[in-house]
Amino acid sequence: MGALLDPWRDPLMQRALIEVVLLGIVGGTLGTWIVLQRLSFSAEALPHAMFPGLVGAALLGLPLVLGGAAGLVVAAMVIALASRVRGLDRDAAISIAMTALFGLGVLLALSPDSPPGIGELLFGDVLALTTGDLVLAAGLTVVVLGALRVLHARLAIVAFDRESAASLGVGPGRIDLLLLLLVALAVLICVQALGNLFVAAVLVAPAATARLLGRSLVASMAVAVAVAIACGVGGLLLSYHADTAAGASIALVTVVAYLLAAAASRTSASRRAPRPA
Amino acid sequence: MSDPAAHPAGAERAASTVEDPAVLGAVPASLCAHARDSRADGRPLVELEDAATGYGPDLRLREVTLTATAGQRVAVLGPNGGGKTTLFRLLLGELPLRGGRLALHDDVAVVPQTERSRLDFPVSALDVVLMGTIARRPWWRGPRREDREQALAALEVVGLTDRAGAAFGALSGGQRQRVLVARALVRDARILLLDEPFTGLDTTSGDRLHQLIDRLAEAGHVLLIATHDVRQAQGWDRVLCLNGRQVAYGAPAETLSVETLEATYGRDLLRLDDGRTVRLLGDHHHH
Prior knowledge:
Radius of gyration of chain B: 19 Å
GO molecular function (chain B): ATP binding
Protein name (chain B): Metal ABC transporter ATP-binding protein
Shape of chain B: globular
Number of helices of chain B: 10
CATH class of chain A: Mainly Alpha
CATH architecture of the largest domain in chain B: 3-Layer(aba) Sandwich
Order of helices and strands of chain A: HHHHHHHHHHHHHH
Number of domains of chain A: 1
Helix content of chain A: over 70%
CATH architecture of chain A: Orthogonal Bundle
Shape of chain A: globular
Largest interface: A-B, 24 and 27 residues
Oligomer: heterodimer
Number of helices of chain A: 14
CATH class of the largest domain in chain B: Alpha Beta
Strand content of chain B: 15-25%
Helix content of chain B: 25-40%
Keywords (chain B): ATP-binding, Nucleotide-binding, Transport
Number of strands of chain A: 0
Largest sheet of chain B: 6 strands, mixed
InterPro entries (chain B): AAA+_ATPase, ABC_transporter-like_ATP-bd, ABC_transporter-like_CS, Metal_Ion_Import_ABC, P-loop_NTPase
Organism (chain B): Patulibacter brassicae
């Protein structure tokens, strides 16, 4: 029992716990829409696309959150615009935008003026968060949740019947852009803790797990939030006891949870299937 | 279509309509405002004159001239790529008018094919119908009680009140199609576009949908129905034949000649030995 409770006496772990709870709430709710709208690849691509913004902010001595925000907004707009090019599907548009922006970030990072510690931008450090970081993350979480509540009906229409959405008065392109901007905000919440290489672990994997288990939209979101928080806590404990990187540990536990849920879902489905006579 | 004597198909429609209040509810005034007035004065709801439209520089549909009034059921025939969906997108305002004239005297709502919606999406039949109310709600507000009441009334019209809470994906193909009709009804639009609504339906579901179409026409809607079923088109009030352009438009008895259908479908048309019956070859169920 001590192995489970002792780590939380450490103030660093207490702040990390608050952060993973915030990440779980955002990742579970927003992630459900990301999975339903089939924007998982975008959620994976956006953090990479923000890399030049982070590096640029570091080079200019600006707060990382400002650079990340600028990079994400530009990336979201480039992806949304590229998606509208006739003859270019959305995945191809995102791949091109992500590669171009990530390449730009690498060019900036490799410049002689590049500061030390660029690696933290890639891998994050959940144990190095300040109280100010947590307050900022909490504020962004409230913004994301409020926006999702307001957009709920429109998101449902586009996810349910994309081709007819315009005839109902809902522009699918506009909704895509808004959702990607929310993903960008979520990435800002996640990136300092997990690094931009592991953000997808929180934004996609718990929601994908919940899709295997939840029956209704609200139930899927609740399960996704619970899975994300549980995996965050499990990852922190693994990191504490095994002395591994926290972000990578959380990502690993989250993926293992998905694989277990997928195996359970498949076993359950095969039991329900009628046996041949 | 208020005078069956002028159009023999109207008499056939009246004969084929089965009154079954236990299955399909009456269309309440809240879902067809002004319907009786319009049917009385016979004012046209859809007018096209030498209309043309398309995607980019290419004209995919041209020379369309028609007038459809309240209460008419208009069959829209044509091969895949012949312009049925293009016409619907023009009427919905999703494609620009590239020539001629277009006048719509009421709102337009479309009933898409059910297979285009995601059956794995966790949403109930009532939720789907409520989607039709979103355009008239402020962007920050969810559905209110009056929205729900109207959605339930629309489900009653299509005979699915008892399935309001059922998952959309768990409904039969015919039930899903009727839910989408209910979604169009709550938009309070009198011009309804049905995109191959009978595709994949069994006979019973098809008959029930047929009755619903008749009832909506009687309530003052004009219905444009994309279909490949020539026999079905014979029972409606007008037939529009498209093949990149308008081949013919008029009453079924005048329009559905073998020559017109050959001009519409080309080689896909097989003329049977009796010289009167025609059958379409090939798969016309997908765009």
